[in-house]
Design the sequence.
């Protein structure tokens, strides 16, 4: 059976994406060399990409559907260059720390880890973020543009399994299954 590159994400509602896009309208012209990620690909990663066949994917969906997941809210904090304390390669929308988000990730990981050998799991401090853009080099002239404070709240009401196809122009995603809370 063919393996697919699958990951589990929190997608965002349209009204939230529209609000963030309005803010980006003022920022994008200042970053002509940067590749901004299309809105329909904006997400928070719950489980990084795993290579799964159809049987494994269906079992993983079944296990996640069996969890009693609850809605919660996240609050944005700022738009900033990232990763922090490193060579900047991205622009992130950073969210405040949130125990409900951390608990959701942990519950899903522990449930799936009982049956699957999960790959690419890195133990590190959780910085909740949405990657808005990627670039290959950092121009020091950009330092006066970001960070930009941004306080916005978004309700998290679902998670999705996405298939990822890697292309030279960046990843392309396809929604395979939506699970509402």
Sequence:
């Amino acid at each position: 059976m063919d393996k697919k590159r699958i990951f589990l994400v929190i997608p965002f509602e349209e009204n939230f994406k529209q609000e963030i896009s309005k803010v980006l309208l003022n920022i994008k012209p200042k970053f002509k060399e940067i590749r901004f990620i299309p809105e329909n690909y904006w997400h928070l990663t719950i489980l990084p990409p795993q290579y799964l066949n159809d049987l494994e994917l269906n079992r993983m969906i079944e296990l996640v559907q069996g969890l009693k997941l609850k809605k919660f809210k996240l609050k944005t904090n700022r738009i900033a260059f990232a990763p922090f304390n490193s060579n900047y390669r991205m622009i992130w929308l950073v969210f405040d720390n949130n125990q409900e988000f951390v608990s959701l990730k942990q519950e899903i990981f522990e449930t799936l880890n009982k049956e699957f050998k999960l790959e690419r799991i890195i133990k590190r401090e959780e910085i909740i973020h949405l990657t808005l853009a990627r670039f290959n080099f950092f121009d020091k002239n950009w330092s006066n543009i970001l960070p930009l404070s941004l306080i916005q709240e978004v309700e998290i009401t679902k998670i999705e399994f996405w298939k990822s196809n890697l292309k030279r122009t960046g990843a392309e995603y396809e929604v395979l299954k939506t699970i509402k809370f």
Remarks:
- The CA atoms of residues 89 and 136 lie 6 Å apart.
- The first helix runs from residue 14 to 27.
- The mean pLDDT is 92.
